[in-house]
Every structure is written in structure tokens, then in C-alpha cells.
Amino acid sequence: MQARTVAALLSQTDPRLTGADTPQLEVIRTSGDVIQDRRLADIGGKALFTKEIERALVEGEIDMAVHSAKDLETTLAPGTVLACTLQREDVRDALIAPGCRSLADLPEGAVVGTASLRRQSQLLRIRPDVQVELMRGNVETRLAKLAAGDVQATFLAAAGLNRLGKAEHIDLLLNTDDMLPAAGQGAIAVQCRADDMVSLAVLCMMNDPAAAAELRAERALLAELGGSCHTPIAALARADIRGCLKIRARVLRPDGSEMWQVEGAGTWADGAKLGRELGASLSRQCDPDVLKFAPGDSTR
Question: pTM of this prediction?
């Protein structure tokens, strides 16, 4: 779906991309798509969603790689750049729990399915009575498990449901004060080779400056923290039309028993610097044991 969106935008942006030059899709099934029975933390982190795609890009098998920005590790494959961030979708997490209009409506001791430590920790901070059960898979798989009664509730990114035309399944869009999203959530990023001037030129025309500024800030904060898939980290930057940028971030214990958070403001141009500064501040505040693992999937 995301790759089709980018292909359509490429054709709209550059009228030369028609006929034999129409963008072609190359579907690459990643390890993250194949392995569905374990947390990403246990099998290599979010690189499992990108390593095969990045290899194909570096080796020239594809010219552009389309990613959900929250799946990208903070360090890109050598010789590649993020050349384009599309206009950002809804950044919020959606609660899928029939009959519930708030987290308080979840039954006492409800079983909630998620593979995200970020979602788990923030949920348990509000509802320590619920039980969290590992649940991975695509949207259809998770909705099917919910319908089958395997769990009583689950979370999905609102952006993904909107893009798939499945927003009717959303029972509650969670306030970001309660459930701060993953860094990059709601953003589609396009990666290309740094020396591919043709791709860089057309992707530059498609880039949304506000979304790109937000993503730079969030990724810089994540990189500074050096968090891992064992670390629940959430971050959200918001860029306004006046060129101002605000960012909030938090680190939690997986059981939600403690939370450390920071916020700050600057300009679009200062986003990466601001992200690094806030990441360093958050790192100083929190228990160092929380961030002791190597970088990986901290945000999903």
C-alpha cells in the first residue's frame, strides 16, 4: 500500500515517469514479515523489517526503498539517505476493543494483545490490572485474533488503518498524553542511494518539509538514547506553520512502574540538534539499566 502510494506520487511529480519508465514495484518479503511468533526484541530488532530492502537498494536491485518510518533503525545502510518524507498521517495509536470508548472501559484483568513494549508499558501505567499477551501479525491477523476471542483488545497505528481503509475498526483514538507514539509513527520515508541524482531530484520535490523536520528530531533523539527493543521509548515532534517545532519523549520500565519524560521547543532547522539534546537529558534522568542494551527496535 505504501509503495503504491509513493509510485503514484512519483508519476504525478515527474511527467516523464510514464510508459516504459512508469515506476515498477518490487515486493520484498522481510524477516520481520515472516517471523510472527516472537517479539522483535528476541530475534534481531526492527532491522528485520529493513535489512533485506536495504541490501537490495545498496546492490542496485531497486532504486528506492519505501518504509514505515518507525521501522527504520537510526543508522542507515552506508551510501544511502532518507531523501523524502511524505505528509504525515495520524500519529496516534488506536485501541481496538469492541464496546470500549476509553481505557477505563476495559474489563478488569482484560487480556490485551500487543508485541510493543512501548504500548505495553504505557497501558500498564494507566491500567496495571490488565494482562498483556504477545500478539504480532498484520492488521488482518490481529483483527481476526480479536474476533476469535484470543484477546479482548489490541492496539494498531491509526495511520495504518486509515491507509488500508479500515478506520471503522477503531474504537478509541488514544490521546498522546496517555499513549505517546513511536518515533516516526504515521510517516512514510523513502530511502535511496546517496549518489543517485535522478532519484534524489524527484524525491526532493515530493518531500514534506514539516514531516521531515519532525522525523529528523525524533530519530536524533532515539539515536542519542541508544535505546533497544528491550526499552519502551516514545517520541513525538510537531512542526507548525510558523517554523516552530515542539518535541516530547518518554522512557518507561516495561511494567509501567516508572516513567521519565522531557519536552522542548525550537525551529524546524534545529530539530536534529534539539532531538539530541533532549535525548541526552532523558538519558541522564532515567535509570541507566533501562538503556543498557544495544540499539534496536525500541519504538514499535
Answer: 0.89
